[in-house]
Amino acid sequence: MHYLLKTEPTVYGFAELQKEGSTIWDGVTNPVAVKNLRGMKKGDKLVIYHTGDEKRAVGTATVESVSADDPKNPQVRIKAGRLISHPVTLAEIKTSELFTDSPLVRQGRLSVVPLNQEQYEWVTGR
To answer: Which architecture, in CATH terms, is 2-124?
Structure first.
């Protein structure tokens, strides 16, 4: 499975994740986003998306572990991947037919969004 994680780059950006190497992705409160976090498995591939003024997918990561002991606040350890060579903007995503029914487009405030293989490959260029 693949997911897109949204973050405000002025709070915690992809550069910080790369510098630290890994981090716990927690503190998500939206029930649908929490459900998506709980559904993650070790090895799942991730896209890191900067919100705010940037609104673009900037990098990749992978899930290292998931602790869902507290079902309302699952803690997912993620490991930094690579920069996306051509960051994909929200405007580009919205014009792609791959995302017509995606929660990324239809539920703009959702911070953890599932992606299918084709969407992941399109965004990451792989």
So the answer is: Roll (3.10)
